[in-house]
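Researcher: Re-running this chain for the archive, since the previous output was lost when a drive failed. Same request as before.
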Amino acid sequence: MRHFLSATAISLGMLLSGCATTFTGQVTTFHEWPQQLSSTSYIVERLPAQENNPEYKVYEEELRQQLGLHGFQEVAAGATPALKVNMQYATSPSEIQYSMPWGPSMMDPYWRLHFSRAYQFYPYSPYYFGSPFYMLRTSDVTVRRYYLHQLEISISDFSNGKKLADIKASTEQLNPNITESMPYLIESALKNFPGQNGSTTNVEIPLNKN
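Model: Regenerated structure tokens:
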């Protein structure tokens, strides 16, 4: 039992202390992308709430860069584009993970509570008085709250409003701030554009952005 507990603690410690070198996300794509498109010119269409949002405008510039890498050309002011692009994003609390020093972590997908202490079991010793069962005491546990960052990019025909592509990208991160994840979410969403219609894929991108 002692060797088992030691091995479990070491394995868990290595897992929690490891540094991620890639961004991992999930991308779902639905599209009716034409095989022959006469023009890939576009404008980014903002929602009223996005017009005076400095944070959104930073992400919009990242979107423009990624669209350019995939052959899209933004039109000059006053020109008529072939496509319009919309972008929305959001963050919501996800899972809480509890990591015990004596065993594997436990997930709590249902109860959204923040516990800081828990019961810990110790093997029976003949020097303990009482019942020959496991002794109990409270001990600190590691609590981790994950956050779900989500991005949606829609591309529509400018002339008639028909939606040609709807792409959703998401990732779970410890950081509640979506700012660091947005460049990777945008890159993930457009990585294999237009992709297979109705598909959901896992995407990994090296963490090389500053």
